[in-house]
Amino acid sequence: MDARVHIADDYNQSQMIGLGIVFIILPILAVVLRIWAKLLGPRGIVADDILVFFGLVRRFDSRVNSRSVIDVHPMMIREIDLSKCKFAVNILSTVGLGFTKSSFLLFYMSIFTTKRFRICAQIVLAITVAWTISYFFSNLFTCNPISPYIEPFYHNNCVDGLALWYSMAISDIIVDFFIILLPIPVTLKLQLPLHQRIGVLAMFMLGAA
Q1: Which residue in 97, 102, 107, 82 sits closest to 135, CA to CA?
Q2: What is the DSSP letter of 172?
């Protein structure tokens, strides 16, 4: 009995290219506008601006030169390219996420200067740094020796890639939850009308989300 499953591959190429371009331009534009606004202000560029700039490493060209593969079936070339791209994405996106999360935390600490808040923010920042380092090396050393080919049919000595992805995704959401939750108590205590406090809080939550 043939147990093979057919996977549809009917993506519109122009749509995918368009989405890719849009999601490259938008973060670049946002960071450029942020840095421009900071340059116009009295404080200038500070640490959180530098970190969010480095967070743009998440947006990169993941093309792989498959022309160097000789005498390989085109479908196999596609699988090889996909594996290399996923390997690069997993590593670079982890670093980019770490920079972006750290940038928000430093930004919070530059606004709210109470001792209790700074301690809480520093704890979350330490967790973020530990998360970034841990999953950077976890993704780098998924296989022994290092290899982008983690699927079982490559017969490499690798950990369960799906379990690693789930643990990274779940822990990423948990860290984000703490980052979003962090400014809520201090924002609600600001000496502002309620609707303004809600507006400031919504701005923080939208940015962190």
Answers
A1: 97
A2: H
